[in-house]
Amino acid sequence: MAKHHTNEMSFLDHLEDLRWHLIRATLAIVIAGFAAFIMSDFIFDTIIFGPKKLSFPTYKWLCKISTFIGIDTTFCADEFPFSIQNRTMGGQFSAHIWTSITTGFVVAFPYVIYQFWKFISPGLHANERKHSRGFIIISSLLFFLGVLFGYYIVTPLSINFLGTYNVSNEISNEIDISSYIALVRSSAIASGLIFELPIIIYFLTKIGLVTPKFLKKYRKFALVIVLILSAIITPPDIASQIIVAIPILILYQVSIYISKMVVKNQKKKEKHV
Fold it and tell me: Does residue 44 fall inside a structural domain?
């Protein structure tokens, strides 16, 4: 059984406490993953392979915009010029397992964060715990927003660019299932984690590693890093990188504001001491 009396806990007790929180978080992921494994038809046909169909909402939206502007685009085509296939004996089973685990992690994320919070909260002051009650809700909301952004924006842009890219008519695109799923998974999960930036900055400011002055001073460097991140998780075309960079830059500005609020509250506490 996990212990929660932090003042009386030794280093080994902390490790034991952490072990139980990790076990509970892992169990939640496994349970959610098992449910996703059973619902394979919906997970694969509707979610995973949804962005492969040009009837996907994002393509319809981009097609309407392109038509309105008068630009010729692949978003208005009937279907993508590539097929997905499996080349190994265990390929489909492996894809089924890893997709289920990934889905389990996404679904169970609020509970995973809850377990993380249960581990660190005993080390906080009562006042700090009171002001941080919305941590689980806010971090989960940011993560889900990031996953949706990755799924509905980053993934379709990547599939449209890479799936239609052709260096020669002698080459046909026959994409392996593992490669396709890796693209969908990395786009969604990476975006979800990037959207956690304000939460990360909050804790870094709390422990004194980051200040609003530091964030403002290195804003130009942050812009370069954002563009590099955008280039990593999106296809190498300028439009896609800008679309991804905008929300990350907004999150960075929000992080500066959050850092200011943390420093302001800390100064207030120091005055009252």
Answer: yes
Task: List all residues 6 or more positions away from 176 whose beta carbon is below 8 Å from its beta carbon.
Answer: 84, 85, 86, 87, 91
Full domain range(s) for residue 57: 12-164+172-271
Residue 4, helix vs strand vs coil: coil
Is 235 in contact with 187 (CB distance < 8 Å)? no
Residue 2 lies in a domain: no
Give the three-class secondary structure for 85: strand
What number of CA atoms fall less than 13 Å from residue 256's CA on the CB side?
14
DSSP-assigned states of every residue in 8-44: G--HHHHHHHHHHHHHHHHHHHHHHHHHHHHTHHIII
DSSP notation for 193-215: HHTTHHHHHHHHHHTTS--HHHH
pLDDT tens track for 85-142: 999 999 999 999 999 999 999 999 999 998 888 887 776 666 656 656 677 888 999 9
**Number of domains the chain contains:** 1
**Dihedral pair phi/psi, residue 175, rounded to 5°:** -80, 135
